[in-house]
Write a structure and sequence with these properties.
By secondary structure, the chain is α/β, with parallel strands linked by helices. It contains 13 helices and 22 strands. Helices cover 33% and strands 18% of the residues. β5 and β6 (113-115) form a beta hairpin. The structure holds flavin-adenine dinucleotide and succinic acid.
Length: 557
């Protein structure tokens, strides 16, 4: 196996919206390497349906979008980051359009072409710009198309990042020390060779963690790799207890694999939720009924299912008629038809599924992590904008806004880009191991065990007993996986399994520490919120957890 050392000015790990936007921007300053563990389009971004939230209508205002975001976040948002998110939205949307993204448009009463703005849960105005129900795919297409014309960007598909290259370095003032990132060890999936990718600036944009749960809307890539890598390297990790369950994924009896999402935009167009017997259960629960924030809708469905013993609830949009549904939701219409459901004639069976991680690697409002020269953006980051619950369609926005801000920071600090000879020498990857097929088959079963354990014990409704049980079990599973990792040949599946179990441990640990209920974290032993927990829970390897507001964390490099 031929291991190489490759140098670039920027190493970007991940080819979703966050990684690609950063790549386009910084490519003006030097050579960019993007590594991505499957094909370039394999990302959560590619599956995004509903759209991007932004203030684009004269009837809307920044204050209203900020207010809705803070309300959903249940007291834990970093308000400064939220203002930046919302205030930058319109410009970033225009930029996506100028790069070739085609959003759905309509005519206003004067015949002018305007964005066709949709509505989603927790939003008090129509502000979701979308491309029918395939928004993410359209954005990903436009970004990759743009990148294909930029000679400074090279994409390495089927390359899996294993670990970050870090070194302790003296602080700027000569006192104290902090860690600096210089790139990553990257596994070439096809050959098994591990290459050393060196760069003065690294951007982690590895997306979410949905695959830790048995039922998820996320594709297979969502195994939390970036968070686990950064945690091992010593970065601060926050808000891991806040896992968002999307209320409406398509229920399919006996089928496994990714749960197909029925976009919240369907409820935005007026769809109603009922039990199988026809009870409209969101009435009386929240003034916004079906369009209440996601945590409330998902928990109410969970409770209805537990009360009735049913396997699903029903979502009815049939009254909109076939013509409208085919045009507005072509993918959902078609997918449901393939599953034997004509949504223009009958309701859709739906269940909640793990969808989004609000927490992640702590960053400031320029995407800087607590490790020098390591930027983080997108779902892997915890910028503080989501707090205890993300407002629908704020995450694609977060990816573009904070990747843009990270690029702005680099433009203002070009001295960060240093030449190859100024970089430390890192040894080639030297982990040796053997491959034992039988043992690997057994170890792989651990993946299913983790997914079921997280679903059963660390799901929508939690309790002390379930969390403690989950922690005891996950420790045993983790030890087996870490032991196998130390002894074995490295493979992409093993990299993911090791990361998946680390992230599961972080989620359970944070959930145990939050002794209250807030936003997406609901523990029956502490059913209400407590003033003393108006703080973010921050984890760091080999240290005690820190209870601190996100806005009080200062990144100083
Ligand atoms: P991703 O788009 O997930 O990209 C991560 C990239 O990192 C991938 O290329 C992956 O292969 C790569 N990667 C991961 N680990 C490694 C590794 N070890 N080595 C190399 N590469 C690696 N949000 C909205 O705002 N609006 C919506 O309408 C919306 N709809 C959604 C619908 C669905 C079904 C899903 C699943 C999510 C939806 N979301 C939506 C959430 C949103 O899509 C994501 O939060 C967002 O796309 C994340 O972008 P990202 O760039 O951070 O990560
Ligand atoms: C959806 O279309 O319902 C997903 C929106 C989101 O996750 O923000």
């Amino acid at each position: 196996m031929n291991s190489k050392t490759l140098y670039s000015d920027f190493l970007i790990i991940g080819s979703g919206i966050a990684g690609l936007v950063f790549a386009i921007k910084v490519s003006e300053l030097g050579l960019v390497h993007i590594v991505t563990k499957k094909k370039d389009t394999d990302s959560n971004t590619n599956y995004a349906q509903g759209g991007i939230a932004s203030v684009l209508s004269p009837e809307d205002s920044f204050q209203s979008h900020i207010h809705d975001t803070l309300v959903a976040g249940a007291g834990l948002c970093n308000e400064e980051a939220v203002k930046i998110l919302v205030g930058n939205g319109p410009q970033r949307i225009s930029e996506l359009v100028s790069w070739g993204t085609k959003f759905s448009m309509k005519r206003d009463k004067n015949g002018r072409e305007i964005f066709d703005l949709g509505r989603e849960g927790g939003h008090s105005k129509n502000r979701i710009v979308h491309a029918k129900d395939l928004t993410g795919q359209e954005i990903e297409r436009a970004l990759l198309e743009k990148i294909s014309h930029i000679s400074n960007i090279k994409i390495f598909e089927d390359h899996t990042a294993i670990d970050l290259l870090t070194e302790h370095q003296l602080g700027k003032d000569g006192i104290g020390s902090s860690k600096t990132c210089f790139g990553a060890y990257i596994l070439e999936n096809a050959t098994g060779a591990v290459h050393t990718f060196i760069a003065p600036i690294t951007m982690l944009a590895t997306g979410g963690i949905g695959q830790i749960y048995l039922h998820t809307t996320n594709p297979e890539i969502a195994t939390g790799d970036g968070i686990a890598m950064a945690y091992r390297a010593g970065a601060l990790i926050a808000d891991m207890e806040f896992i968002q369950f999307h209320p409406t994924s398509l229920y399919r009896e006996g089928k496994s694999g990714r749960s197909f999402l029925i976009s919240e935009a369907v409820r935005g167009e007026g769809a109603i939720l009922t039990t199988i017997k026809g009870k409209r259960f969101m009435e009386g629960v929240h003034p916004m009924k079906e369009l209440a924030p996601r945590d409330i809708v998902a928990r109410t469905i969970d409770s209805e299912l537990k009360k009735s013993g049913d396997k699903y609830v029903l979502l009815d949009i049939s009254f909109k008629g076939e013509k409208f549904l085919r045009e507005r939701f072509p993918t959902i219409y078609q997918k449901c038809l393939e599953e034997g459901i004509d949504i223009a004639k009958e309701p859709i069976p739906v269940v909640p599924a793990a969808h989004y991680l609000c927490g992640g690697i702590v960053t400031d409002t320029f995407g800087r992590s607590s490790i020098r020269n390591l930027f983080v953006s997108g779902e892997t980051a915890c910028t503080g904008v989501h707090g205890a619950n993300r407002l629908a369609s704020n995450s694609l926005l977060e990816g573009i806004v904070f990747s843009h801000r990270a690029a702005e920071y680099v433009f203002a600090h070009k001295n960060l880009i240093v030449s190859e000879n100024a970089m430390p020498n890192f040894p080639c990857w030297n982990k040796e191991g053997t491959f034992d097929l039988e043992e690997w088959i057994l170890i792989q079963h651990n993946k299913e065990d983790v997914k079921r354990l997280m679903w059963d014990y660390v799901g929508i409704v939690r309790s002390n007993l379930r969390l403690q049980r989950a922690q005891r079990r996950i420790r045993i599973i983790a030890e087996e996986i870490y032991d196998y990792y130390r002894r074995s040949t490295i493979t992409p599946e093993l990299v993911e399994l090791r990361n998946l179990v680390t992230v599961a441990e972080l989620i359970i640990e944070s959930a145990l520490q939050r002794k209250e209920s807030r936003g997406l974290h609901y523990n029956i032993n502490y059913p209400s919120s407590k003033e003393e927990f108006l703080v973010n829970i921050i984890l760091q390897a080999n240290s005690q957890s820190i209870f601190k507001k996100h806005c009080d964390i200062h990144i100083n490099w």
